[in-house]
Amino acid sequence: MHLHRYEKIWLMLGAGGLALFIVLLCVNAFAMGMAPPSNMEMIDPEKVTETPPFDKPGLKQVGDNEYDAYMTAFAFGFSPTKMEIPVGATVNFHVTSPDVIHGFQIPETNINFMVLPGHISSATHTFDKPGEYLILCNEYCGAGHQVMATTIIVK
């Protein structure tokens, strides 16, 4: 079979691009460390409710207008069920799960991550606008998934 010169050039460019993509994928996965987006804190998923600070989930003030929110995502809810913070507060979310994979999303913010059993997922957001912010599970986790939500009230 005879291939035209331009066909050979395009085939070589395509194969070269594919090879470059695979090399970059391998570098990112193995040399850079393939891991969930978090600082890789771990906890025993069977002892989440017994391990501080997740034994008493809620808001803890750590600075001037800065809070740490320790939360658990479980089938089919979040703990705590409601949190109140002042306008302009920065909240550092630390979330884990004792049972299955959940999602953690706050619409209209940049907070969106997965909550894996045994992993402590973390993210930070500053709430500049007053109102109610809904926290949703955006990862299907079972039959009651649609009722899994909690709120943050910014006053």
Automatic annotation (TrEMBL):
Q: Where is each Cytochrome oxidase subunit II copper A binding domain found?
A: 54-155
Q: Which GO terms describe its molecular function?
A: copper ion binding; cytochrome-c oxidase activity; oxidoreductase activity
Q: Which CDD domains match?
A: ba3_CcO_II_C
Keywords assigned = Copper, Metal-binding, Oxidoreductase
Q: Name one GO cellular component term.
A: membrane
Q: Which PROSITE patterns match?
A: COX2 (PS00078), COX2_CUA (PS50857)
Q: Please state where this protein is localized.
A: Cell envelope
Q: Which PANTHER family match?
A: CYTOCHROME C OXIDASE SUBUNIT II, NITROUS-OXIDE REDUCTASE
What this protein is called in its record is Cytochrome aa3 subunit 2
Species for this entry: Brevibacillus brevis (strain 47 / JCM 6285 / NBRC 100599)
